[in-house]
Design goal:
CATH superfamily of the largest domain in chain A: ATP-grasp fold, B domain
Distance between the termini of chain A: 61 Å
CATH topology of the largest domain in chain B: Rossmann fold
CATH architecture of the largest domain in chain B: 3-Layer(aba) Sandwich
Helix content of chain A: 25-40%
Strand order of the largest sheet of chain A: 14-13-10-11-12-15-16
CATH class of the largest domain in chain A: Alpha Beta
Number of strands of chain A: 34
Strand order of the largest sheet of chain B: 10-12-11-13-14-19-18-17-15-16
Number of strands of chain B: 19
Number of helices of chain B: 12
CATH topology of the largest domain in chain A: D-amino Acid Aminotransferase, Chain A, domain 1
Oligomer: heterodimer
Strand content of chain B: 25-35%
Shape of chain B: globular
Structural class of chain A: alpha+beta
Radius of gyration of chain B: 21 Å
CATH architecture of the largest domain in chain A: 2-Layer Sandwich
Largest sheet of chain A: 7 strands, antiparallel
């Protein structure tokens, strides 16, 4: 069946602000769906309240509504736009629930809007545990034994039936498994059941047989209107059952399933998908398998594009969201071509000849008193994916991607205390594979580790091999390493830094690199081609390995490399990917070959049809250098990818790698508190008294000089990591100790805290000659609440023209003095009509997409072009710099507190919000302004 | 588990080499049996099911290179064999797992290979070799851990007999007829050119009596058993080099008894009906190929293993009609013959390894039989009966 011609206009619902459990993977799927449906000639109307998304950009859809995701606002849009159909499967559970709610009201039917991509009657089946159970029983799919409880008493009875604790508790209809988890003790049981009953909108919890220690798998399916079903990817969780799949270290394809087991799982998945209606689209099914008996149990089914579909798309090269959206409008799989090969059918199951490892990224350090144990409720804020020819290689690359100071799977620092290892292995923690490595290092056997951790021994053998090889490296001096051994070590994913640490002589990472290259051991680049090399591929999607043959041919064109922002985390999220994508598009518009390097599978930037070339690689010095040496670009853009990319600029500067836009020295000038203050003095710009300290004594001395309260913070961090307000000497000691424990060599900064000041966030672009202020945002919450956690209003709502003029003058002076070429963000505090400059960051800020959406000006695009040599004058003369904002735009922070019930809700200089929404208001009676204004002082702590 | 404490492949590897007929030589590590072997080097893109592949008689004479890097992960289970022993002549793997994880396994793949004298090579860049074959076509190769002289190995690879024009079924067929199972359903006679166990199990699951006959059995001896249907099995080699089998197939087409062929059996039926068969450049080997059933429009994800195919141009309406095509390259995957009750497919509906999407073809054969002789299958096949292998 070809595409439907009875529908012309389609409403696409986004997923709203980023929260834990629902992140930027839905920007990826929504953008892909929108682009591909537009290419088919459909008019796309898009609604999402999240300004930091590519999907809400004019480049993505025909008409964009930055509105709250509520039934009322959807109704308003439907009445104005009169779409023929709505596609709710690309916006996560939020969009699906919203569409379901309106369906329950009979709204879609009344308005003649066709719900496509899902069988809306089936949503309840998949979300309601009991209905799902009944259905699975009917179609003969085995289940964990369980029952729904409506009260604590009932919950206790059920637990007794199941043979007692431990059991799993799952509240019905909550996102990312909020409130769920395994309980081991009666106390915990009472607490969790009560909380689950409260959290569940229908006040039900499921009490379930505990599958602790079982293996967990996930299958990604696509089905068309002819009932053809294909499996795109099988994902195996290295963490056993009991850890939410979003928090698990996972690999693709499955490694430990026999063909018989896999095919049984495939059959069951297909039967399950067919049992929940006749829709055409994507679907995700999870299974548990008991290793000893092979008993297989279905866990859940999601009739929509999911976080795992984004991962599966990036892991296989198969564009799931794109194909799913085409299926939703009537195409059948046999009518579509595989985009990657360009010649073969899209109706096939990808075969891959590499291993993909995903490791989630957590932000526990942001939440004091948080329980770090991983459970069935998701806690990760982001993830990295790495591709290698073997599991060992991809695992080490994934650790290099995490950007938490590791250079691979350990072997880069002095070891952890022995007694910790066993304790940490018993329960699930984020660093499980590292603890496994440490255990092997101490001589533990695979049997012991498997017994404690319940990780499948196959993965343990691979990690043990890494440790064995580590031992072999330790026996040698660098010069004793020959070519075959060096190649073998690199094929196991070891970084030059690890090798430098391990060899007997005292050598640097750079010396290892030079020596390795002198042996002729250099990375190769392989294509992600969906078919294991069976057919030639057209896509420019690569990963590095140490094979004999490089498939990435270097073109004659002039090239720009854009560094991505790595895994999402609090303080560095989707906003930076937004800027990176625009960096890519603008570079292409300027005639360059745009090359993207990133390792975050959730993002639009790692969609292989965004950049001219995509290297799915860790944003890690060695790997980035390798790509640069291979491609020889004109330069590298570092100011769009947040702190990740920026951190590498010091090394680039040393290595003579050209940085596009603001030079390293200018960036360092802004980051170095001493040098920056000298500049402010020179420019006669006021700033709060400050000090810098390398020791605790120094810190206390500085503090006593400056006075209290004061801000204590480490340098070179984002999102106010480790930042606190201290009101006395003891607190200064406490906070500095805490920072140095995490970041030993950091220079700690102390600033006088301007109590009750009003904070401003200013974004500007400088081309070296002039400065254009993109927007001035005034915070509603008092200074002291991190800017990312503040409600910001654009333009300022209570600042005199004089003050605003001063603000503009200051940022102009600073940008020109620093020699900024591209973006700069300056934070200022206004107290008693005096403007103080707090800090300047010559790079894309978190607020760039917000300002761009509010004003309708493509700021990242203009900034990139300025970096590449365009002048602001050109844009001004074209009228590109005129704001289209009427009234005010409000940026509202969104938090994921419900995932950390044990953490008190308080705001301070350390950022805690995970996402944001935008609201457009005309006056200050609007609730979007009034509510945060009334509560502005409530949560300020430190 | 009987896994060793250390990975000997990592600590004490033995060198092994593979030479291709075009002069390419790669050096890796020896796995399985230490010795020398040769054959046509081809690749398979299945990510699971290595044991079923290595024991599939259709692969006789071929060195099997797996595109998936990690092979051996879940060991081997005797029950998963598709024949009594491995059939491939050599194994090529990027990253061999000397240690496995599977509480239900009988042995490691390494031990299995040693026991069955199967030579293997690992720690080489298989992807580069796949791309090489993709552009240069399949070619012969020799693997050796005893002769490490490049020139000598290349010479051996060049002198290895070409698959083209090679008859191999006689090497793998049984010597005497035997009854695989007895049931109250139809009698199915199976011509064994190298039949996979799961084909036999697929008949058994429907209640058939199955008698397996050697490839060279005279048709009258088969007819003496009074079969309700005759099945032509898969198998290795060039079907054009099997004049006797083609003649016998022609004869069978005259009997009016429903016929069904898979893979080599499909090619023999086609040749007997007057269609042409050609050797493919690379062939299809994997478990992810889309096959469209032209009658229903439905697409099956299929298991494929063939280096020869029926020539589309030779198919005329009065001889046969195309029932199945491969959506990737539009090659012929199935035909129904015009002048007799017979159909055949190029791919493997019995799977093992691979997806179970095409089991219905066995039911179609049962329907043909029922129409012809009125004998019905007595069972609805269950997955447990068909895919009776290890879990």
């Amino acid at each position: 069946m070809p595409k439907r011609t009875d529908i012309k206009k389609i409403l696409l619902i986004g997923s709203g602000p980023i929260i834990i459990g629902q992140a930027c993977e839905f920007d990826y799927s929504g953008s892909q769906a929108s682009r591909s449906l537009r290419a088919e000639g459909y008019e796309i109307v898009l609604v999402n309240s999240n300004p930091a998304t590519i999907m809400t950009d004019p480049v993505t859809a025909d008409k964009i509504y930055l509105r709250p995701l509520t039934p009322d606002s959807i109704k308003q849009i439907v009445e104005d736009e009169k779409p023929d159909a709505v596609l709710p499967t690309m916006g996560g559970q939020t969009a699906l629930n919203l569409a379901n709610k309106l369906h329950q009201q009979g709204y879609w039917e009344k308005m003649g809007v066709d719900v496509i991509g899902v069988d809306i009657d089936a949503i309840n089946i998949t979300e309601d545990r009991q209905q799902f159970r009944d259905l699975m029983e009917k179609i003969g799919i085995d289940q964990a034994r369980s029952r729904v409880a409506k009260s604590l008493l009932e919950a206790k009875e059920i637990t007794q039936e199941l043979g007692g604790l431990p059991v799993v508790i799952r509240p019905s209809f909550t996102l990312g498994g909020s409130g769920g988890g395994i309980v081991w003790s009666p106390d915990e049981f009472d607490k969790k059941v009560m909380r689950g009953l409260e959290l569940s909108p229908v006040h039900e919890v499921l009490i379930e047989e505990c599958l602790f220690g079982w293996k967990e798998f996930e299958l990604e399916l696509l089905r068309d209107a002819n009932d053809n079903v294909i499996i795109i990817c099988t994902i195996e969780n290295v963490d056993p059952m009991g850890v939410h799949t979003g928090d698990s270290l996972t690999v693709a394809p499955s490694q430990t399933l026999t063909d018989k087991q896999f095919q049984r799982m495939r059959d069951a998945a297909i039967r399950m998908m067919r049992s929940i209606g006749t829709f055409a689209g994507g679907c995700n099914v999870q299974f548990a398998l008991e290793p000893k008996t092979g008993r297989m149990i279905a866990i859940e089914i999601n009739p929509r594009v999911s976080r795992s579909s984004a991962l599966a798309s990036k892991a296989t090269g198969y564009p799931i969201a794109k194909v799913a959206s085409k299926l939703a409008v009537g195409y059948t799989l046999d009518e579509l071509k595989n985009d990657v090969t360009g010649t073969t059918s899209a109706c096939f199951e990808p075969s891959i000849d590499y291993v993909v490892t995903k490791i989630p990224r957590f932000n526990f350090e942001k939440f004091e008193g948080v329980d770090e144990e991983l459970t069935t409720q998701m806690k990760a804020v982001g993830e990295v994916m790495a591709i290698g020819r073997t599991f060992a290689e991809s695992l080490q690359k994934a650790w290099q991607s995490l950007e938490n100071g590791y250079h691979g799977l350990g072997a880069d620092r002095d070891e952890t205390a022995r007694f910790e290892i066993r304790d940490r292995l018993k329960k699930s923690y984020w660093d499980r594979t590292l603890q496994i490595r440490n255990a092997f290092k101490l001589g533990a056997s695979v049997e012991e580790v498997a017994d404690i951790s319940k990780v499948d021994p196959w993965f343990l053998y691979q990690i043990q091999d890494i440790v064995t090889l580590e031992g072999e490296i330790r026996k040698k001096a660098l010069s004793q390493i020959d070519e075959p051994f060096m190649r073998e070590v690199k094929r196991y994913g070891f970084s030059d830094y690890q090798i430098a640490y391990l060899v007997q002589d005292d050598v640097s990472e750079n010396e290892v690199r030079a020596f390795r290259q002198s042996l002729g051991v250099k990375p190769s680049y392989q294509v992600v081609d969906t078919c294991a090399g069976e057919f030639p591929a057209q896509t420019p999607y690569f990963y590095s390995s140490y094979e004999s043959n490089t498939e990435s041919e270097v073109s004659e064109k002039e090239k720009i490399i854009i560094l991505g922002s790595g895994p999402n985390r609090i303080g560095q999220g989707i906003e930076f990917d937004y800027s990176c994508v625009h960096g890519v598009l603008a570079s292409k518009e300027m005639g360059y070959e745009a090359i993207m390097i990133n390792c975050n599978p959730e993002t639009v930037s790692t969609d292989f049809d965004v950049a001219d070339k995509l290297y799915f690689e860790p944003v890690f010095l060695e790997r980035v250098r390798d790509v640069i040496e291979h491609e020889n670009p004109k330069g590298v853009i570092v100011q769009l990818g947040g702190q990740t990319a920026l951190k590498l600029s010091r090394d680039f500067d040393k290595l003579g790698i050209p940085i596009i836009g603001t030079s390293f020295d200018s960036m360092d000038l802004a980051e170095d508190r001493g040098r920056f203050s000298d500049i402010l003095k020179e420019l006669e710009i006021p700033f709060p008294p400050y000090g810098a300290a390398r020791t605790e004594r120094e810190a206390v001395e500085r503090a006593e000089e400056i006075g209290y309260p004061l801000l204590v913070r480490p340098s070179y961090v984002l999102g106010g990591q480790g930042m606190r307000i201290a009101i006395n000497k003891d607190e200064v000691e406490e906070y500095t100790q805490r920072i140095w424990k995490l970041m030993p060599d950091n220079v700690i900064l102390l600033d006088l805290f301007l109590e009750n000041g009003i904070e401003l966030d200013v974004d500007a672009i400088c081309d070296g000659e002039e400065v254009w202020v993109c927007g001035i945002m005034q915070h509603i919450e008092p200074a002291g609440v991190h800017s990312g956690d503040s409600t910001a209003v654009l333009p300022p709502y209570s600042m005199s023209d004089d003050v605003q003029q001063t603000v503009r003058q200051y940022i102009r002076d600073i940008a020109l003095r620093l020699g900024v070429i591209g973006l700069i963000n300056v934070q200022m505090v206004v107290k008693n009509d005096h403007v103080y400059v707090i800090e300047a960051n010559p790079r894309a800020s978190r607020t760039v997409p917000f300002v761009a959406k509010a004003t309708g000006i493509p700021i990242s695009n203009i900034a990139t072009k300025v970096m590449l040599g365009e002048k602001l004058k050109t844009f001004r003369e074209n009228g590109d710099l005129v704001s289209k904002l009427e009234g005010f735009a409000v940026k509202e922070p969104v938090f994921s507190w419900d995932k950390f019930p044990e953490v008190p809700k308080e705001l301070g200089p350390e950022m805690k919000s995970t996402g944001e929404a935008i609201a457009f208001i005309q006056d200050f009676d609007d609730e979007a302004f009034r509510k945060p204004f009334e509560m502005r002082n409530l949560y300020l702590s430190r | 588990m009987i896994n060793p404490q250390n990975n000997e492949l990592l600590l004490h590897p033995e060198i092994c080499k593979m030479a291709l007929a075009d002069g390419t030589v790669v050096t890796g590590k020896a796995v399985g049996y230490r010795g020398e072997t040769g054959g046509e080097l081809c690749f398979n893109t299945s990510m699971t099911g290595y044991q079923e592949i290595f024991t599939d008689p259709s692969y006789v004479g071929q060195i099997m290179m797996m595109t998936y890097p990690h092979i051996g992960n879940y060991g081997t289970m005797d029950i998963d064999n598709e024949a009594h022993s491995p059939m491939v002549s050599g194994v090529v793997v990027r990253s061999f797992s000397p240690r496995y994880s599977n509480p239900m396994a009988d042995d490691s793949l390494d031990a299995f290979m040693k026991k069955h004298q199967l030579v293997g090579i690992t720690e080489i860049d298989t992807r580069a070799l796949v791309l090489h074959i993709r552009s240069k076509g399949v070619m012969n190769a020799v693997i050796s851990s005893v002769d490490l002289d490049n020139d000598s190995l290349i010479e051996k690879a060049r002198n290895w007999p070409s698959m083209e024009g090679l008859e191999l079924a006689s090497r793998v067929t049984i010597s005497e007829p035997f009854d695989f199972c007895e049931g109250d359903g139809p009698n199915v006679a199976v011509f064994d050119f190298g039949v996979k166990q799961n084909i036999l199990r697929s008949f058994k699951a429907r209640g058939c009596s199955v008698r397996v006959f050697p490839a060279a059995t005279a048709l009258k001896d088969v007819l003496a058993w009074e079969p309700d249907g005759i099945f032509f099995s898969n198998g290795p080699g060039d079907p054009r080099a099997m004049p006797d089998a083609i003649a016998m197939t022609k004869e069978a087409m005259q009997t009016g008894i429903p016929l069904f062929g898979i893979c080599l059996g499909h090619q023999l039926l086609s040749l007997a009906a007057g269609l042409d068969v050609y050797k493919m450049y690379v062939g299809h080997r994997g478990a992810n190929h889309p096959v469209q059933n032209l009658n229903t429009g439905h697409v099956e994800v299929s298991t494929q293993n063939h280096g020869f195919a029926v020539d589309r141009e030779s198919i005329k309406d009065d001889i046969a009609s195309i029932t199945h095509v491969n959506l990737n390259d539009n090659t012929v995957e199935g035909v129904r013959f015009a002048k007799c009750t017979a159909f055949s497919v190029q791919y493997h509906p019995e799977a093992s390894p691979g997806p179970h999407d095409s089991q219905y073809l066995f039911d179609e054969f049962m329907a043909d039989i029922e129409k012809h002789s009125g004998v019905k299958p007595t069972h609805e096949p269950t997955p447990e009966m068909v895919y009776a292998g290890g879990r």
